[in-house]
Design brief:
The N and C termini lie far apart (40 Å). The longest helix is centred in the last third of the chain and has 18 residues. It is built from twelve helices and seven strands. It has a single domain, classed as TIM Barrel (Alpha-Beta Barrel), CATH 3.20.20.70. By secondary structure, it is of the alpha/beta class. The relative contact order is 0.14.
C-alpha cells in the first residue's frame, strides 16, 4: 500500500521537465537558448532534464539537430543533474543510431518513445527495446504516449519489457490512471514517471517516483514544491499545489497546440528567448498571448 511518501533512493526521481528546443526567428536551431532553458529549470530545483520529448518538438528536428541538442544540454547541466535524452524514431535502426549518439554525448539515460505511425504488436515492442538496450550501456526509459504514437502497451507486454536488462523505467503519458496503477503494482522494480500535469498528485499516490511536467518548463519551483511536499508526507499541501497546477495548466493550454509554454517563457523574466514553435506547429497570436498574460497575472505568476 502506498503510504503517501515517495520511495527512497530511486535511480530517477523528482521533477524532470521535458525541456524545450529553442528556435531563431527563421526557425533555425538555437542551441544557446536551448541550453539556457535547461539551466533555468535546474536552477529552479529540477532533479533532472528530459530534452527531446514532446515539448522539445523532437519530431520536427533532423537527426543531426537532435544529436546537437543532447550535446548542448549535457554540456549545460550534465554535471548537476541526470540528462535523460529522447531518442525515439519510428524505426529500430534509427532509434539505435540516436541512442548511440546520445550515449557518446554523455547522456545519463535514454527515453525511448514507442515506435509510431505503424502499428506494432507486443513482440515487436519487446524486440525494439531489446535492440536498444543491447546497443548502449545506459538505462532505458520506455515512453508510453498512445494518443500520439497509436501504439499502446498492454500490461503483459510491459512485464516482458521490464524483464529486459537495461530497461529501468517508464514515462507514462497515457492519462489512464487504472492502467498506471496496475503497471506500478505489477512492476515494482521499475521507476515510473507520470507524464501529465493533470496527474502529478495522482501519479505520486499510485507509486510513481517522478514527474515529467510541462508546467515545470516555466514554473519549476511550483512543481518541485508539489513533489517535495508529497515526499515529506504532507499530502494536503501537495494536493493544494496540484490544484494550482491545474489552473496554470489550463492557462498554458490556451491557443494552438503546445504554444503556451514557449509564450509563457517569453512573458516571465527568464533572461533568454526560446523563440516560437517550428512549423507546422504555430505560436500564439497577439490576442491569445495577451489572454495568457492576463491569466498568469491573475494567478500571481507575473
Amino acid at each position: 500500500m502506498n503510504t503517501g511518501s515517495v520511495p527512497d533512493g530511486p535511480a530517477l526521481h523528482g521533477v524532470v521537465p521535458p525541456t524545450v528546443t529553442a528556435f531563431g526567428p527563421d526557425g533555425s536551431l538555437d542551441l544557446e537558448a536551448t541550453a539556457s532553458h535547461a539551466r533555468y529549470v535546474v536552477d529552479g530545483g529540477a532533479h533532472g532534464v528530459f530534452p527531446l520529448g514532446t515539448n522539445g518538438e523532437f519530431a520536427t528536428l533532423s537527426a543531426a539537430e537532435r544529436d546537437r541538442v543532447v550535446a548542448a544540454v549535457v554540456e549545460a547541466v550534465g554535471d548537476d543533474v541526470p540528462v535523460i535524452a529522447g531518442v525515439g524514431e519510428p524505426s529500430t535502426r534509427g532509434t539505435v543510431t540516436r541512442a548511440r549518439a546520445a550515449a557518446d554525448a554523455g547522456a545519463d539515460g535514454l527515453v525511448v518513445v514507442t515506435p509510431y505511425y505503424y502499428p506494432v504488436d507486443g513482440r515487436g515492442l519487446v524486440d525494439h527495446y531489446r535492440a536498444v538496450t543491447e546497443a548502449v550501456d545506459l538505462p532505458v526509459y520506455v515512453y508510453h504516449i498512445p494518443s500520439k504514437t497509436g501504439n499502446r502497451i498492454d500490461l503483459e507486454t510491459l512485464s516482458e519489457l521490464a524483464a529486459i536488462d537495461g530497461v529501468e523505467g517508464l514515462k507514462d503519458s497515457s492519462k489512464d490512471v487504472p492502467w498506471l496503477g496496475q503497471a506500478v503494482d505489477a512492476n515494482p522494480e521499475l521507476d515510473f514517471l507520470v507524464g501529465s500535469d493533470s496527474l502529478l498528485f495522482a501519479g505520486l499516490s499510485v507509486g510513481c517516483t517522478g514527474l515529467v511536467s510541462a508546467v515545470a518548463n516555466v514554473f519549476p519551483e511550483l512543481v518541485v514544491d508539489c513533489y517535495d511536499a508529497f515526499a515529506a508526507g504532507d499530502r494536503e499541501t501537495a494536493r493544494e499545489i496540484q490544484s494550482r497546477v491545474f489552473e496554470v495548466r489550463s492557462a498554458l493550454k490556451r491557443g494552438p497546440y503546445m504554444a503556451g509554454v514557449k509564450t509563457a517563457l517569453s512573458l516571465v523574466d527568464t533572461g533568454f528567448d526560446v523563440g516560437g514553435l517550428r512549423a507546422p506547429l504555430r505560436s500564439m497570436d497577439a490576442a491569445d498571448r495577451e489572454a495568457l498574460a492576463t491569466d498568469l497575472r491573475d494567478l500571481g505568476l507575473l
